[in-house]
Each structure stands twice: as structure tokens, then as C-alpha cells.
Design goal:
Structural class: mainly alpha
Shape: elongated
CATH topology of the domain at 351-416: Arc Repressor Mutant, subunit A
CATH architecture of the domain at 351-416: Orthogonal Bundle
Helix content: 55-70%
Number of strands: 2
CATH class of the domain at 351-416: Mainly Alpha
Radius of gyration: 36 Å
């Protein structure tokens, strides 16, 4: 994005004494108040005065001139030309879309084909001119090469954001870019009222107006970057469709915790029209319609059901259950997969107790080696070298003790251990 519009800080705003007297109309208790989000945006938009026709045309001409001056100055560097050539090659290979690099409408197929043909023809020419610019040329030859590069790039209508990401090192080009962004911000601030007006017409007084205003700012900044003052139209006339498009793109996702992509919105409408409107009141009707939709659209039934599940909105686990259950919230009705069943918990305790009894039948050194080696003490296993360093032994000696201990454990009679333990428990009772 070329223009970065700063958001307004939502803090306590104190009215000026003269303005507050005009607004409160005799009420002395309303000198200070907390404003909601819409009032903050309105006051921020009202802080910048409206532009007259001559001022708007002058500012648009300055934006155009600074952009052209920055691009021509940046194209004097061979690294910038190499960067643009690499982007054009990615576009030719199909890894990047043409409208991501060039100023082009995504639905204009005729202009798109002509521009793709121009890109295919311009890549070798730009590569050759870039190689010539790296050679030692005189001033006249260098000017001629630079003029041809600028003319080719302007014919391809490469976007400004491609130049913003280019590796230019000229400090004068950096200053021109800063001036260009500053004028773009001034144009956007002067037309914030237009965004608020369009957002309120579309959304009314709903709770999503502030979010839609932010999305409208995105369309406004795009319109500032693309506006051509030479067409003789007002900026508000040109920017209105871009602002409406930016708001309507995200309006279906308003109120959703998980946002769906734009292409999924079209699939959702088709799915709801073909499946939900034709299904019966029972779940069998839904399953039948989903199967029919999957066969008609050539997708699997699992993908169709996952598509249906993605259209469902999320719910909070703290919401009280609407049924007759006594569990309270929905979170209390969800099973804990991490918790063990009582039978499994009892078996693990008995198994741990049996291992401890088996280890006690070994000698002290063997018990220590097995416990350290397999983490029966602290749950962390150790290598032979680590056990050897802790017990002042070599690795081979630890391995020998481990083997002897395993031989004893294999020949151990477990049933005798349990009988001896039961006898001890009876005597203690």
C-alpha cells in the first residue's frame, strides 16, 4: 500500500471552551465527555478542511509529478531495473499475476492479453538496456539508454508499490518518495468525510460502522494512488466506487470471528442456494443435498461437509446451555481428551507400583543405574555417558550393570512380589 493513513487515537477528548458552549446549548455539565468511535473519526475528519477544486487539482498534479520524478530517478540505477525485470519474469512464468505488477483491471481480458504480449517483448529489451547502462558510457549515450528504459516502463504501467520495494540508494529519490507519500496522505485526510458518509449509507448505525470506515480508508488510499487529474473529473467522483468496493468486499464477514476469503463468499451463496433451500427439515435431507452438490460440483463429500461447517458461525463456550442440562455453560459439556479414564489411571498407578517393587529387588547400584537410565526418578532419561559421569563409572561399566540388572528382572517372579505385598498389607491391617 502506497499511502499509510494514521488511525485516530481513541482517548478522552476535551472540548475547547468556545466550542463546548456552542455544542452543549446552555448545559454546563457537558464540557467534557467520552466520545465513541464514530465521533472520534468525525472529529478527525473535520480537523482537515475540505479542498477547493483548484486546490484538489494542484495537489493531484503534485502527486503525479512527484511519482513520475521518483520513478525516473530510481530507474537510473541498474539494480532497480534488474528488480523490475525479475518481477516481469515472474509474471511471464505465471508465479505472479499481471494486475499485481501493472496498473490493470482484473476483469479486463483484452487489455490483459495485450499487456502480457508487451511484457513478453519488453523483457529482453530491458535486460539488454540494463547491461548497457552498467558499461562505461558517455553522458549522451547514458541519457539515451535511460530515456528508453523510462519509456518502456511507462508503457507497461508498473505499479508504484513495485518501485517502493525496489533497492534504490539515491537519497534524492528517497526525498521524492517521502514528498509523494506526504501529499497522498494530505489528499486522503481531506476526503475522510466521504468515507464516513459512504460507510454510514451502507451500514447505517450498526456496530460495524467503525470497521467499515477502516476498510473504506483502504479503498480511499487506492483511489489516491490511481487518480488521474487530467481526466477532468472530481476526486470524490473517482474515489466513490473504490470506497464502496472496499466496504462491500468485507461486509459479508462483518460480525464473524473467522473471516472467509472473497472467493468463498461466492461459493457460499451457491451452496446455500443449491443445498439449504432444497433440503428438508431433517438431517437426512441435508445429507442428501450435500451429496448431490458434491457430485454436481465434482468435489468429495468430505470437502462439501467441511464447506458447510465453515459457514457456521462460532459460539462462546461461556454461553449458558439452552437445554435442560444441569451442566451450566457449554464448556462444562465438552469432554476433556487430556484426562485419563478411571480404569486407565488405576492401571498406570498399579504399573508404576509394580516397577518400584521390581527395582527394589535389585542391588543398590543396579537400581540406581536403571532409574537414572530410563528416568524412573525424575521422568528424564539419560545416556550411558551421562549416567557414568554421575556415578563415576565408564560407559562400558554402566552397560554391564544395566545388562546384569535386565537379566535379573527377566528371571524375576512377579506373582511372588504381589503375594508378599498382600501378606505385608494384611499384617499391617
Amino acid at each position: 500500500m502506497i499511502v499509510k493513513l494514521k488511525t485516530i487515537d481513541s482517548s478522552v477528548v476535551e472540548f475547547d471552551s468556545t466550542k463546548s458552549q456552542r455544542l452543549k446549548k446552555g448545559s454546563e455539565t457537558r464540557s467534557t465527555r467520552l466520545l465513541d468511535d464514530i465521533d472520534f473519526v468525525k472529529r478527525g475528519a473535520g480537523a482537515t478542511p475540505l479542498l477547493k477544486r483548484e486546490e484538489e487539482r494542484l495537489l493531484a498534479r503534485q502527486i503525479h509529478c512527484y511519482r513520475k520524478a521518483f520513478q525516473r530517478l530510481a530507474l537510473q540505477e541498474s539494480d532497480v531495473v534488474d528488480f523490475l525485470v525479475s518481477l516481469l519474469k515472474q509474471c511471464e512464468n505465471g508465479s505472479l499475476r499481471v494486475d499485481r505488477i501493472c496498473e490493470l483491471s482484473a476483469n479486463d481480458k483484452t487489455v490483459r492479453k495485450n499487456l502480457e504480449a508487451r511484457i513478453h517483448a519488453a523483457i529482453p529489451t530491458l535486460t539488454h538496456l540494463c547491461e548497457q547502462s552498467k558499461k562505461s558510457l558517455n553522458k549522451k549515450q547514458r541519457r539515451r539508454v535511460h530515456h528508453r528504459i523510462v519509456r518502456l516502463v511507462e508503457e507497461l504501467r508498473i505499479r508504484q508499490r513495485c518501485f517502493d520495494r525496489s533497492p534504490f540508494v539515491n537519497p534524492k529519490a528517497d526525498q521524492l518518495l517521502a514528498q509523494y507519500n506526504a501529499h497522498c496522505r494530505n489528499m486522503a485526510r481531506a476526503n475522510m468525510r466521504l468515507v464516513i458518509s459512504i460507510a454510514k449509507k451502507i451500514c447505517g448505525n450498526s456496530m460495524w460502522v467503525s470497521d467499515m470506515i477502516q476498510e473504506g480508508n483502504r479503498g480511499l488510499m487506492h483511489a489516491v494512488a490511481k487518480f488521474d487529474y487530467q481526466r477532468g473529473i472530481k476526486f470524490s467522483t473517482y474515489a466513490t466506487p473504490w470506497i464502496r468496493k472496499a466496504i462491500l468486499e468485507v461486509l459479508p464477514n462483518a460480525g464473524r470471528n473467522i473471516r472467509l476469503p472473497e472467493n468463498m463468499q461466492r461459493v457460499k451463496k451457491r451452496f446455500l442456494r443449491e443445498v439449504v433451500s432444497n433440503r428438508g427439515m431433517d438431517n437426512d435431507g441435508l445429507t442428501h443435498e450435500v451429496d448431490r452438490f458434491a457430485k454436481h460440483r465434482n468435489v468429495s463429500v468430505c470437502d462439501a461437509m467441511r464447506l458447510w461447517a465453515s459457514f457456521q458461525d462460532t459460539a462462546s463456550l461461556d454461553v449458558e446451555s439452552t437445554g435442560t442440562s444441569d451442566y451450566g455453560s457449554m464448556a462444562n459439556q465438552v469432554a476433556d481428551d487430556q484426562r485419563q479414564e478411571p480404569v486407565e489411571l488405576a492401571e498406570s498407578i498399579e504399573r508404576r507400583h509394580l516397577i518400584q517393587k521390581m527395582l527394589k529387588s535389585l542391588e543398590q547400584t543396579e537400581e540406581t543405574v536403571i532409574s537414572l537410565r530410563y528416568g524412573f526418578r525424575d521422568g528424564e532419561g539419560r545416556s550411558l555417558a551421562e549416567v557414568g559421569r554421575q556415578m563415576n563409572m565408564t560407559r562400558d561399566r554402566v552397560r554391564q550393570i544395566e545388562k546384569e540388572a535386565f537379566d535379573k528382572l527377566v528371571g524375576l517372579n512377579v506373582s511372588k512380589l504381589w503375594k508378599a505385598e498382600d501378606h505385608e498389607q494384611k499384617r499391617a491391617s
